[in-house]
Amino acid sequence: MRVLAAMSGGVDSAVAAARAVAAGHDVVGVHLALSRTRDAMRSGSRGCCSKEDAGDAARAADVLGIPYYVWDLSDEFARDVVDDFVAAYAAGETPNPCLRCNEKIKFAAVLDRALALGFDAVCTGHYARLDPSGPVLRRAVDDGKDQSYVLAVLRADQLRHAMFPVGDTAKPQIREEAARLGLRVAGKPDSHDICFVPTGDTRGFLSSRIAASPGPIVDDASGEVLGTHDGVHGFTVGQRKGIGVDRPAADGRPRYVLGIEPVSGTVRVGPEAALEVTAVSARRPVWTSGVAPQGPFAATVQVRAHGGLAPATVTPADDGVEVALDAPLRGVAPGQAVAFYRPDDDGDVVLGSATITRTA
Q: Which terms does the record give in the GO molecular function aspect (predicted)?
């Protein structure tokens, strides 16, 4: 097969490309230039698309003996990922930009271009497994690195042209393999946080793009106004630190953000126990099989990239789904994705996902 290997400059994508080469595929490496400010150097495990990353990807391609190109998708990334991220926070939601990047960039813009150029598949360093028949998307062997949650937005036709070569191996072994291959990125730190917020200051990043819009911070139980804020974009459901309330609750326990009302600008706070939800409504469902289930079905649901799992009954409804949780989950917010896993087979088969609109 002709395979386009997306090479970020990290160890995972480098080993994924190496495995595609070893499997006998005709592999071409491509580095995605997503940032509009690529002159800065990488700072440890923060940031992306730096000069260092592009150089590391080029050197890895050279070691593997494959052609290497850079594709500038910074405009698409700014529109579909960064702008979407900012708009979601302005609307009081909590988005996942990695999930949106996989959906809109790596397996839409990149895959579409790859297929148009005659490639059969796009290969990435994501930690997930893919059975060719179906196709069936599964969790990675390494639970701590599993990325099936942020891939649950992919459609069946996209999965048919995807390759995830490292999903059957634990991360330490991937680093060892990279070292044996002579790849300099073998010991490179993993990226974390939001790639386009290299400082880690998400609130500051949002404040530079969203105008201040003051509103009240209200006790959810009593309705008492406890303080004010400069904009709902500075808060997420489940947040405990940096709320901006000086005095403690009557029982001396911490307060948490329970809800965000963007129209009125109200941020509701209360005790940790009030974060529990037992029902979720979600829109824009995507089914990895390509076929929407008929009627309610049992599933294990996941609401965060790592953790936030519970058994549930999922009911398709119009252009969305209703999820009744068998066990309560905390810190579930509109804008997050809810991913559905088949409850048998160790719960590692991804059935689909949807974007949360409401919790109860």
A: tRNA-uridine 2-sulfurtransferase activity
